[in-house]
Design brief:
- The chain is mainly beta.
- Helices cover about 0% and strands about 50% of the residues.
- The chain is built from no helices and 11 strands.
- The N and C termini lie far apart (about 40 Å).
């Protein structure tokens, strides 16, 4: 079984940066395509960004392109989400997710991910 633990969330003002981390344990981290999803209050969980096993392929949801950067360090079993120029509309619980599907497809749905963390709250004030 895979365990995912997010960290790095918090309350920040608009325009600043924040970095989220996701530590993965239990199985070989490099065997999983990974992703970040978020769920704003009263809304569905949606994709933010995903990254392939080696990090060579990356997908970003349109609203975060140019502001967010996803990365992974397979030696540290950790995935990151660098979030710059944060906006109030980025306020959400951010979830780390992993999929064991063999082929990286980029724009995964929630159902496409097998394992989830419990989430970390990011609140951006205006």
């Amino acid at each position: 079984q895979v365990q995912l633990v997010e960290s790095g969330g918090g309350l920040v003002q608009a325009g600043v940066s924040l970095r989220l981390s996701c530590l993965v344990s239990g199985r070989t981290f490099s065997s999983y395509h990974m992703g970040w999803f978020r769920q704003a209050p009263g809304k569905e969980r949606v994709i933010v960004a995903t990254i392939s096993l080696s990090g060579s392929s990356i997908y970003y949801e349109e609203s975060v392109k140019g502001r967010f950067t996803i990365s992974r360090d397979n030696a540290k079993n950790t995935m990151y989400l660098q979030m710059n120029s944060l906006k109030p509309e980025d306020t959400a619980v951010y979830y780390c997710a992993a999929t064991s599907r063999p082929y990286y497809s980029g724009s995964y749905s929630v159902d496409g991910m097998n394992f989830w963390g419990k989430g970390t709250l990011v609140t951006v004030s205006s």
